[in-house]
Specification:
binds zinc ion, 54% helix, single chain
Length: 69
């Protein structure tokens, strides 16, 4: 049976395990995919907020700056 390291406790577990027998992490093989997805969502939110700030604060500031030249 192929063994992989649990992403939570790093003990070897079966690739077919649905829960980690050592730490009880449910679905340990999808844990990494889940945290990757979460960090992607966080980055997306950061980008949207940065875009919002740029659009509503930086661009009017730039326009004002250019107008006063
Ligand atoms: Zn574990």
């Amino acid at each position: 049976m192929p063994l992989v390291a649990c992403p939570v406790c790093e003990k070897p577990i079966s690739k077919h395990a649905h829960t980690c027998p050592s730490c009880g992490e449910p679905d340990p093989l999808n844990h990494l995919a889940k945290s990757k997805f979460l960090s992607l969502v966080v980055w997306l939110i950061v980008l949207v907020v940065a875009g919002y700030v740029a659009w509503f604060y930086l661009i009017p500031m730039l326009i004002e700056f250019v107008r006063h030249q």
